[in-house]
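To: structure subgroup
Subject: Chain for Friday's discussion

All,

I'm putting the inputs and outputs inline so they're searchable in the archive.
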Amino acid sequence: AFCFTLYPMTKKSNGSGNGHDGEEDEEGVVKFPTLGERDRLRRLKDKDQVAQEKYLRDQYKAQRNDNNPPFLNLEKITPFVRFLVLTLLIIHVPLYLFADASARFEVFNNFGLVPERFTTGANYQWYTPLTFITHMFVHGSWMHIGFNTVMTLALGIFFERAFGARTTAIFFFACGIAGALAYMAYAPFAAAPIVGASGGIS
């Protein structure tokens, strides 16, 4: 029978085979971790991997939330747009919940813009010039107020962020008045009132 004894080789092995090779340089000995050390290293690796996976999931969720904002984020509505939308709803909701059709017609007739009153003087009142402004805050139906509210949020927020609340307000009213003047130029003798903020929003 043959019996072999294997010794770990070191950088300073003298090759004598006397069992004392490498005693001068233990750093050259290849040491394998014990079972306990391997288990501890595996647990640390698993812990690091779990932490890394959690970090990647959190990053993905944050990126997904940024790429998919909510349909309506109330905190990001700019000041003038918020004021305008609330004003439109405060006027419209009671008008359609608590007033009958005849009362609504009176509101439209008094606060809507009627071109005939400016061109012929029929039923001209002291407040008639104010209808260039007041007609923008009265709407003819739920669909009318709904569409204008959505468009105000969709367009007004971006405009106000770029130009500021003061410029947005001036631009809104200027465009609303310009829209009324355009309608008067198109139908100068119309007796039906026009209502709605579409001119300013568009």
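Points worth raising on Friday:
The chain has a mean pLDDT of 84.
Residues 35-67 form the longest helix (33 residues).

D.
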